[in-house]
């Protein structure tokens, strides 16, 4: 098995960081042989989630990892912030829900773009982990 | 900050977004374009986004809002060249993210703009010697 690509850790603090993060996500998925449709979905999901960080928490982190193994190619992205957290996660995951006048596509829209989507949130720590995978 | 060139072709404005924009640059583009449309009383605007390989909900909103603003001023708008993967992603993410009129490419977009402008019977358009 080939070696995994090095992880990329990015600080998220302004709108230029959104661009950097989505480029990095696209680049890694491209290097791992994901098709353009997957690359675009992943880059867009990262864009949405990092924008949430800036909008709701101000600053945060984005970690892009290659978790591929012999069976499949996997890109996992973890986006964290220490903001106020999401009061009602179940509500936030419902289509059409937004606390900001529908500025973004919301979490449900973002979830549809990736293979796995995990979110946990409490005051001081919100973490979203998204994954795209394809057979090796 | 990147500034997007706005080209003028008689009473039509052409904009081609060649680079991934930050949120601030997108807002700057919006106000530059709306101001330019007002300044020259443009009859049509073609926005080419062939080069954009990510259009997230924010950028989609900026594009939509810009199109609505330009229409409010009195110009026709055409969004040209949305990449297939961008179209797929936008629709999967949520309906109605792009509501403006679209064309495959700048060429088709310009033709459609001209047809629409001609249909409005704006005499100044012919006065300017275009077509």
Automatic annotation (TrEMBL), chain A:
InterPro entries: HATPase_C_sf (IPR036890), HATPase_dom (IPR003594). The keyword DNA-binding does not apply. Signal peptide: none annotated. SMART domains: HATPase_c. GO terms for molecular function: kinase activity. Coiled coil: none annotated. Residues 37-136 form the Histidine kinase/HSP90-like ATPase domain. It holds the Pfam family HATPase_c. Keywords: Kinase, Transferase. This is Serine/threonine-protein kinase RsbT. It comes from Ectothiorhodospira magna. The lineage of its organism: Bacteria, Pseudomonadati, Pseudomonadota, Gammaproteobacteria, Chromatiales.
Automatic annotation (TrEMBL), chain B:
Residues 2-94 form the STAS domain. CDD domains: STAS_RsbR_RsbS_like (cd07041). It comes from the Bacteria. This is RsbT antagonist protein RsbS. It comes from Ectothiorhodospira magna. The lineage of its organism: Bacteria, Pseudomonadati, Pseudomonadota, Gammaproteobacteria, Chromatiales.
């Amino acid at each position: 098995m080939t070696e995994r690509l090095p992880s990329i850790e990015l600080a998220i603090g302004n709108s230029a960081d959104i661009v950097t993060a989505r480029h990095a996500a696209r680049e890694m998925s491209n290097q791992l042989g994901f098709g353009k449709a997957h690359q675009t979905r992943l880059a867009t999901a990262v864009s949405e989630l990092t924008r949430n960080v800036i909008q709701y928490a101000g600053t945060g982190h984005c970690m892009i990892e290659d978790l591929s193994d012999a069976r499949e190619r996997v890109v996992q992205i973890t986006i964290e912030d220490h903001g106020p957290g999401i009061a009602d996660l179940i509500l936030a995951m419902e289509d059409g829900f937004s606390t900001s006048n529908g500025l973004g596509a919301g979490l449900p829209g973002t979830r549809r773009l990736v293979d796995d989507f995990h979110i946990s949130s409490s005051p001081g720590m919100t973490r979203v982990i998204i994954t795209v995978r394809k057979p090796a | 900050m990147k500034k997007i060139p706005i080209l003028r072709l008689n009473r039509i404005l052409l904009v081609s977004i060649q680079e991934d924009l930050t949120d601030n640059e997108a807002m700057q583009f919006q106000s530059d374009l709306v101001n330019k449309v007002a300044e020259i009383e443009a009859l049509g605007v073609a926005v080419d986004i062939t080069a954009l390989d990510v259009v997230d909900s924010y950028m989609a909103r900026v594009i939509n809002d810009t199109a609505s603003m330009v229409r409010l001023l009195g110009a026709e708008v055409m969004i040209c060249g949305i990449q297939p993967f961008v179209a797929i992603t936008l629709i999967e993410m949520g309906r109605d993210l792009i509501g403006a009129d679209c064309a495959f490419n700048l060429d088709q977009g310009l033709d459609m703009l001209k047809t629409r402008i001609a249909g409005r019977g704006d005499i100044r358009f012919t006065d300017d010697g275009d077509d």
